[in-house]
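User: I'm putting together a small comparison set for a docking exercise, and I want a reference complex before I start. The sequence is below, and the ligand is guanosine-5'-diphosphate. Could you produce the 3D structure with the ligand included, as structure tokens?
Assistant: Of course. I'll restate your input first, then give the structure tokens for the complex.
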Amino acid sequence: PSSEYEELRRRIRNNVQETWYYINAELSKLRKTIDKLSYEQREKKIQDTLKNVWDHKRSLIIDIDRLMKADGYDEWRKKEAKELSDLVQRRFRYLQNPNDCNKARKLVCSLNKGCGFGCQIHHITYCFLVAYGTERTLIIRSKGWRYHKDGWESVFKPLSETCVSPIGASHANWPGDSSKQVISLPIVDNVYPKPRFQPPSVPADLAARLEKLHGHPLVWWVGQVLKYLMRPQEHVKKTLNDAKERLGFKKPIVGIHVRRTDKVGTEAAYHDIDEYMVKVEQYFDELEPKPEVRRVFLASDDPKVITTARNRYSNYEIIGDPEIAETASVAKRYSDSSLQGIIIDIHLLSECDYLVCTFSSQVCRVAYELMQTYYPDAYNRFASLDDIYYYGGQNPHPHQAILDHKPRKEGEIELKVGDLIEVFGNHWDGYSKGYNTRTSMTGLFPSFKVKNPVDAVDFPKYPHVPL
Ligand code: GDP
């Protein structure tokens, strides 16, 4: 290791200790003085302490990022990420371009799920994963798509250059059997038996490499599928470049997605723009070197969000297109112009350095998945105001306790190393809520005491595709 690496490593260890000294001392002092303090004094004390804790945390994070640069593995990370991506993209091309379409085994999906763009992209992704798992070429039926009557290929490249016809000698509905040339797959909500190839499964033959490279292998894997599926047609490429130019999209930049209209109160809670901006500010505070402008790309289905943010945060450069947001309202949503808008917004969000959004929205989850294709590992480039990342309709896959936990207050549950925990959510306050399958208890536990193990499943190994 370099001397810089060793110095940083020691410094991080010391500074964790310093952070503890500080918090311990401040709380001990507060215990003695709190009764004598006025409301204003107490507020000031707490504000100052929080600022100081933030400074400690910021310094630790910056040092850990420096440690990553100093450890000498940066080149390896880039190379490994590229090799893995190239390998799976080769396999996808092989699967999707059979020599003889008349004999090819096929899986057919319809692009007709009654939901939004992100949800439909995830629907096709699930179909693609089942196709990859069953070694069948994915054919999508998409004419009459609610976003564009001409279907998928009005905006994205065809999934195959040799085989797009759903016709075959024999047909069956999922699961069918290997004697049938064509199998039709229903939407994930209705599929039975559940395919083991759907998320959170990742191919076992890649799992070890992915676990080493990436903080969230499932997101990487889904991102690779999106990279293949969402290859834009030439005119869409041009639209994207024009949009970047017109809006002044430049790095460094943080992406915010604010989902409003039909989602609020039904599937997600309302979050004020201020809540998003707190996270943006924290990102920029930790960024080195300090950028000259704090630039934000803001996408929403409500144009008022963009105008409000610009009025309230004049110290930021907030770019975004209220006209696109206008086309995203439920009344106008299923139209060609709305389709252009959501493709632009998702693409630009995915190209940001950091994402602030609600993972309850599939728009932001798609952007986060695509973001993974631009970095060796971008798993931590987000702040979600609500859910942890998940894949809609995913097979159950519990987290695993890596540290024991004894409940300290009402509502907490016990953990023993190895316990399997179904996690319902991270409260982003140090605690998560979940169900311990060993004790059948539901409650809170410290989030850092569990890990999300990779779900490696045997997929075909595609031996004909060079490694
Ligand atoms: P979810 O409902 O938020 O989980 O995501 P979906 O993608 O399934 O459905 C929401 C739909 O609303 C999107 O597909 C868009 O058509 C529209 N929409 C939501 N947010 C935005 C946004 O930020 N920009 C644009 N252009 N459209 C949006």
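Residues 115-119, 257, 259, 263, 299-301, 324, 328, 333, 338, 341-342, 345, 361-363 surround guanosine-5'-diphosphate (CB under 6 Å). The longest strand covers residues 420-426.
User: Thanks, that's exactly what I needed.
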